[in-house]
Write a structure and sequence with these properties.
Elements: H1 3-19, H2 24-50, E1 53-55, E2 61-63, H3 64-67
Antiparallel strand pairs: 1-2
Length: 71
C-alpha cells in the first residue's frame, strides 16, 4: 500500500470512528496503518538528513550521513 492509499484509509477510519465508532478489527487496522505511516515518514526524513552536506570554512565538504554513519 503506498502512502496516498495509507493516508486515505487512515482518514476513512478516523471519520468513521467519529461518526459511528470502529470495530475491534478496524481499530487494529487503524493502529497498524498509523504505525506504518509514521515509520515511513521517519525513514524518508532520515534519508533526506543523511544526504545533507555541509561546506566547511576551509572549503571541504562533509556529508552528515557519512560522518555520523548511515544506520
Amino acid at each position: 500500500m503506498n502512502v496516498e492509499e495509507m493516508t486515505r484509509r487512515i482518514n476513512e477510519l478516523y471519520h468513521k470512528s467519529q461518526k459511528e465508532g470502529l470495530t475491534p478489527e478496524e481499530k487494529e487496522e487503524q493502529a497498524a496503518l498509523r504505525q506504518a505511516y509514521v515509520a515511513n515518514v521517519r525513514a524518508n526524513l532520515k534519508g533526506q538528513l543523511d544526504n545533507i552536506s555541509i561546506v566547511e570554512k576551509d572549503g571541504s565538504v562533509t556529508n552528515l550521513g557519512e560522518k555520523h554513519g548511515k544506520r
